[in-house]
From TrEMBL:
The keyword Chloroplast does not apply. It is an enzyme of class 3 (hydrolase). This is Alpha-mannosidase. Residues 1-22 form the signal peptide. It comes from Bombyx mandarina (Wild silk moth). The gene is LOC114244355. SUPFAM superfamilies: Families 57/38 glycoside transferase middle domain, Galactose mutarotase-like, Glycoside hydrolase/deacetylase.
């Protein structure tokens, strides 16, 4: 492993950025004679003795009640007394005083903000502390990420970013060896798999369901072997420990400026003397804790939220606690030994004890902290923030790819890093979750928006370089970022001629419906080969036009289908032509039907102003006939409308869509029975949602798509859309502003009702990757007592939820949401929440988002699939998560002929990735590149795939590659995976086993796929392989 860090040293010197002069790293990374770090620096445990690992730590949220900067600088202490810079200053000083002391740090975002501001002298001290194992990093990602709303791609990225900083700065001694997920509100199976692939030896959790914890304490199963992925088998296993007291110190032993506990007073002459009482209380506590674990080791977390701003208070008292506890233990032959330790060292002690551990094959969702507190509301809280995070990821993947593919100047990496940092912050468990104060949410959005705007410089450079081609001469276009989720784009709205540039970040060809906000008129769109392509003009719904603060004059969307190459960019030429009575030919026919079935010709009346009645009548008849297809809607009465969507491969798909809301509980939170619904907690005051009635239905039909628009009471718009060219149905929804004039908070849901008998079973994804079976009113590993049957059956849906029984009904989401199946044949997803009371878990604010004094309006999309083909579904999921990115540039003064002389189509790959493979990561890595390839097939398929890395990219010759662990901070050859003794077996498929009465085979690791052949690599099912590659450009 040392070879890896030596090889990375040059990169570290190049990448290190410091406000002050930096210390030469070659003098600081390698341990000196007599110094040890990692497991070698751990204190020795004693057999036959209860070894008590005292672990000083701080938990520093990367934004929550205060913004990131407010937390770092200690601003706004009227909100919360917290200043991270003072924590690190104080801890370093106290660690330096005594070599026995230990401390761990977790959040690299804060550490790096502090590090680059330190003097040479302080940096030298920190290097020494790290080399001697006195300061250890755990977790090490940019932030402690959430595990419900995050996507695995963004999780990998933010770990890679945080760990790269530690690697550059501290080398081998800075390597985190355990995951430290002590505050997220539930834990995903996929994260366990990812951490195992990153080379972590163990994982520690703080929060697990109160019933699960009670069972585990009773059965001594708080520590286990967790299998992260059935297809990956033992490669995904990781030791997992649930902490005894979340992450807090024992009651009475918080020695912090933020706490009121008594210090240890050891002056026998003082009336405050309390050593005997304190030590007896503490030793009784550790003995009680030890009864619930299987080895002679216990871990005692000594810290909490933003503790150690005055580290001397802690260490002075902990020194006394350790000293006097050991004296009493020796005197009374208690066989207890206390010492400073770290999670790494505790894990090593467990490993050395060689226990037989129970197994786990599911996940830790949903999490409840008491009978009425199910933390399932945050799966949906702040839905616009969740959507913006997805957009941020799409931009990040695009600019990382373009920086490599276009061979741009290396100084661009500075702005790439800004976006990596912003996205790392967004993964924090109080950011993407929506569980922060409102002003903090605004600051998160500011950070991400600024980073995106800055990073788009890379895209503009790449696209202009591509447009110039070999000539090196071409106009420079602006490639403006538009707000398509609001149907708003200044450039397309105001320009008579403009260029649309579309980039596909996936390594296979896709077709995408491009929708451009425009004012009413006639437009022509030309493809790069000069062909005039089919378009359709669709009126923007009034509900969208009324979105607060929209600031747009657009009345319609100009729609066309873009056929895009893998990792390709295409530009289209759009011009507005004179409006005549024939201009409507590329439009759509719209007919309103009221809830009583009475036709309204208001739309036709408006069109009569620009065309004669004869033309309109003919157009209307043609549109209604439309090749003799049935209308897309039926039965406008009641709370929903049945939908027949005509798709390319199937004549009809019958299902019903309805909307409803749960009134949120409103209580004083003094006892569980009075728990309010809030940012974290979903707690409706009824087990039955209140249905919302349909007000009117209209239909649109044209050359590219057909729509059913349903207006629903409660400020809901539902648009069911079928494209003639696509195999799916798109459901666009708009919710809000949610009215709270009646003093009741509301949580809006959509219900998809089918005739599938799913027997109370449904499937949700784990962070956008593997699918897990869920059973109504049940948990896999304990007998569930459920007093909240609705929130207790909600699960996180990152990308996908489905039900099946012979046939399958799948819903894909454009952001993370909460989902369930409470009724046979039904899929329910929560879309939006507006509440009037806090749930008393710390935020201190109601989840009541407003814009210009009105409730927040949320607009989004679901995609409905009926296929069971795993590759088809996977590709739809990927395209939903990483859609093509669209830019618009003013082309005034650029004629069609001039545009045709540009290079308007660029392919960056030689051949598409074969079915089953996904290019997960392509990014610059100093003078090299980081490349990740993923096999997304499951073991149930013919799943091992070989690919020649040399044959992927145009213009790039890969000279050599060397494989790393998933986070690219260790060479794979240097990583030795730990194995554990297990009681019980894993099964080949958790989903098959859970709730089944049929025999399911025990898990057996499949055969080795053999060695790679140079740059021809093989990937097994669900495997992600990471490489650092030396390249040269051939163009």
């Amino acid at each position: 492993m040392v070879k890896f860090y030596a090889a990375m040293l040059v990169l570290a010197l190049l990448c290190l950025v410091s406000i002050s002069s930096s210390v030469p790293l070659h003098d600081q990374i390698t341990p000196r004679p007599g110094e040890t770090c990692g497991y070698e620096s751990c204190p020795k445990t004693e057999p036959g003795v209860l070894n008590v690992h005292i672990v000083p730590h701080t938990h520093d949220d990367v934004g929550w009640l205060k913004t990131v900067d407010q937390y770092y600088y200690g601003s706004r202490n009227n909100i919360q007394k917290a200043g991270v810079q003072y924590i690190l200053d104080s801890v370093v000083k106290e660690l330096w005083e005594d070599p026995k002391r230990r401390f761990i740090y977790v959040e690299t975002a804060f550490f790096w903000k502090w590090w680059v501001r330190q003097s040479r002298r302080v940096k030298s001290k920190v290097h020494t502390l790290v080399r001697q194992g006195r300061l250890q990093f755990v977790g090490g990602a940019w932030s402690m990420n959430d595990e419900a709303a995050v996507h695995y791609q963004s999780t990998i990225d933010q770990f890679t970013w945080g760990l790269s900083k530690l690697n550059e700065t501290f080398g081998y001694c800075g390597l985190p060896r355990v995951g430290w997920q002590i505050d997220p509100f539930g834990h995903s199976r996929e994260l366990a798999s990812l951490l195992s692939a990153m080379g972590y030896d163990g994982l520690f959790l703080g929060r697990i369901d109160y019933q699960d914890k009670r069972t585990r304490l009773r059965d001594k199963t708080m520590e286990m072997v967790w299998r992260g992925d059935d297809d990956l088998g033992k490669k995904s296993d990781i030791f997992t420990g649930a902490l005894y007291n979340t992450y807090s110190p024992p009651a009475g032993f918080c020695f912090d400026v933020l706490c009121d506990d008594e210090p240890i007073v050891d002056d026998a002459g003082s009336p405050l003397y309390n050593v005997d009482d304190k030590i007896t209380l503490f030793l009784n506590y550790v003995k009680k804790q030890s009864q619930h674990y299987r080895t002679d080791n216990v871990i005692i977390t000594m810290g909490g939220d933003f503790t150690y701003q005055d580290a001397a208070m802690w260490f002075t008292n902990l020194d006394k606690l350790i000293e006097y506890s050991n004296l009493k233990a020796a005197k009374d032959d208690l066989k207890i030994k206390l010492f400073y330790s770290t999670p790494n060292c505790y894990l090593k002690a467990i490993k050395d004890a060689n226990p037989v551990l129970p197994t786990k094959q599911d996940d830790f969702f949903p999490y409840a902290s008491d009978p009425t507190a199910y933390w399932t509301g945050y799966f949906t809280s702040r839905p616009t923030t969740k959507y913006f995070e997805r957009e941020g990821n799409a931009y990040l993947q695009m600019v990382k790819q373009l920086q490599v593919l276009s061979n741009l100047e290396r100084h661009n990496e500075f702005i790439l890093n800004e976006l990596k940092s912003a996205m790392g912050i967004m993964q924090h468990h109080d950011a993407i979750t929506g569980t922060e104060k409102q002003h903090v949410a605004h600051d998160y959005e500011r950070i991400l928006s600024t980073a995106i705007d800055d990073a788009l410089l890379v895209a503009r450079q790449a696209f202009n370089k591509a447009a110039q081609g070999d000539s090196g001469k071409a106009p420079l276009f602006s490639y403006d970022r538009c707000h398509f989720n609001e149907s708003r784009c200044h450039t397309s709205e105001t320009s008579e001629t403009f260029m649309v540039t579309v980039y596909n970040p996936l390594a296979w060809g896709v077709r995408e419906a491009v929708k451009l906000p425009v004012t009413y008129g006639h437009y022509e769109v030309y493809a790069p080969n000069g062909d005039k392509i089919v378009t359709q003009l669709v009126e923007i719904p009034d509900e969208v036009k009324r979105i607060p603060n929209r600031r747009s004059e657009a009345t319609h969307e100009l729609v066309f289908i873009a056929h895009l190459h893998p990792l390709g960019v295409k530009s289209f030429y759009v011009k507005r032509v004179s409006t005549t009575k024939r201009a409507i030919a590329n439009g759509s026919y719209l007919e309103w039907i009221s809830s009583e079935g009475v036709r309204s010709d208001g739309y036709l009346d408006r069109l009569n102003q620009i065309a004669d009645a004869k033309d309109l009548t003919n157009l209307g008849l043609d549109a209604i006939a439309d090749e003799g297809k049935e209308p897309l809607w039926e039965d406008a009465n009641g709370t929903g409308a049945a939908f027949k969507g005509t798709m390319k491969k199937r004549e009809t798909d019958d299902f019903k869509i309805s909307f409803a809301y749960y009134p949120g509980c409103l209580g004083n939170n003094e006892v569980p029975a009075n728990r309010s619904s809030g940012a974290y907690i979903f707690r409706p005051n009824s087990t039955k949602a209140i249905g919302l009635n349909v007000e009117s239905v209209s239909e649109i039909s044209g050359d590219l798509l057909s729509e059913v628009r349903t207006k629903i009471r409660g400020n809901v718009l539902s648009i069911k859309r079928a494209y003639k060219e696509f195999d799916f149905i798109e459901h666009e929804w708009l919710v809000g502003p949610i009215s709270v004039d009646d003093g009741i908070g509301k949580e809006y849901v959509v219900k998809y009702q089918t005739d599938i008998i799913n027997n109370g079973e449904f499937y949700t994804d784990s962070n956008g990757r593997q699918m897990l079976k869920r059973k109504l009113n049940a948990r896999p590993q304990w007998n569930l007592t459920l007093t909240e049957p609705v929130p207790g059956n909600y699960y996180p849906v990152t990308n996908e939820i489905y039900i099946e029984n012979g046939e399958r009904f799948t819903v894909l989401t454009d952001r993370s949401q909460g989902g369930t199946s409470l009724v046979e044949g039904e899929v329910e997803l929560m879309l939006h929440r507006r509440l009037l009371h806090d749930d008393a878990f710390g935020v201190g604010e109601a989840l009541n988002e407003t814009v210009l004094g009105s409730g927040l309006v949320v607009r989004g999309k679901h995609r409905i699939l009926r296929s069971k083909d795993p590759v088809e579904i996977a590709k739809s999921v990927f395209q939903m998560h990483l859609p093509p990115v669209v830019f618009v540039s003013d082309a005034s003064g650029l004629s069609y002929e001039q545009w045709m002389r540009l290079e308007n189509c660029k392919k960056f790959v030689k051949t598409p990735m074969p079915d089953g493979l996904h290019l997960l990561t392509l990014e610059p890595w100093g003078d090299q590149i980081l490349l990740r390839v993923e096999n997304y097939k499951t073991g149930a398929e013919d799943s091992t795939i070989e690919i020649d890395l040399q044959g992927i990219f145009n213009g790039i010759h890969i000279k050599t590659v060397k494989e790393t662990t998933l986070a690219a901070n260790q060479w794979l050859d240097d990583y030795d995976k730990w194995t554990w003794n297990r009681e019980g077996d894993f099964y080949e498929s958790f989903n098959k086993k859970y709730g089944s009465f049929e025999a399911v085979n025990k898990a057996v690791d499949g055969p080795d796929v053999g060695e790679d052949d140079g740059l021809k690599i093989k990937l097994k099912a669900k495997e992600i392989r990471s490489f650092i590659a030396d390249i040269e450009y051939t163009d």
